[in-house]
UniProtKB/TrEMBL annotation:
It comes from Gossypium davidsonii (Davidson's cotton). It comes from the Eukaryota. InterPro entries: RNaseH-like_sf. This is RNase H type-1 domain-containing protein.
Amino acid sequence: MKTRRVQLCWMPPSIGSLKFNVDGAVKGDGQVHDSNLAELLAIKTTLEVFVKIDWKGKTPLIIESDSLNVISSVMNANARP
């Protein structure tokens, strides 16, 4: 069975917005050993910084992740472990 590859292209954020792309790759020698947890922590940190610098409500925020598990967890409370 042949696997079909889908080519994805990075798109810049719209003018006036901020875009963060998180990736939770882990080597196994750090404190976080789960790539999903690493991505969730990166998203949490992004949101904390965004609120702390008082951009909430003033600047659109875009967060991208390559983990379907992480995106599903963030977007759907019922999908959270």
